[in-house]
Design brief:
The chain contains no helices and 11 strands. About 0% of the residues lie in helices and about 60% in strands. Strand 5 and strand 6 form a beta hairpin.
């Protein structure tokens, strides 16, 4: 099963940028749908962005036009480029890998990386 380690979080001023990385090991991510999640009011976590195995992407309305998800299967890594950051983007960002093999669903989470947007 794949293991995930996030990096790239930190403190940034409103309007700034950060690039999060999710490095995978133990298995190739080429057959996984990869996503980034963060906490949300009333929910355990909300989906921020997802990229499917063929490369199709989904981005939440709250970050559309500011965040971009990408994957590099050769480096087994997924990135989340975050631009024009807002205070409300503050929180832990978690990498998620999903693979469905027949009737079996395989979910894997990273430990998270903290993003703080503050002046």
């Amino acid at each position: 099963q794949v293991q995930l380690v996030e990096s790239g979080g930190g403190l940034v001023q409103p309007g700034g940028s950060l690039r999060l990385s999710c490095a995978a090991s133990g298995s190739s991510i080429s057959t996984y749908a990869m996503g980034w999640y963060r906490p949300a009011p009333g929910k355990q976590r909300e989906l921020v962005a997802r990229i499917e195995s063929p490369g199709t992407t989904y981005t939440a309305d709250s970050v559309k036009g500011r965040f971009t998800i990408s994957r590099d299967n050769t480096k087994n890594t997924v990135h989340l480029q975050m631009n024009r950051l807002k205070v409300e983007d503050t929180g832990g960002y978690y990498c998620h890998a999903l693979r469905i093999l027949g009737s079996r669903r395989e979910d894997t989470w990273g430990q998270g990386t903290q993003v703080t947007v503050s002046s």
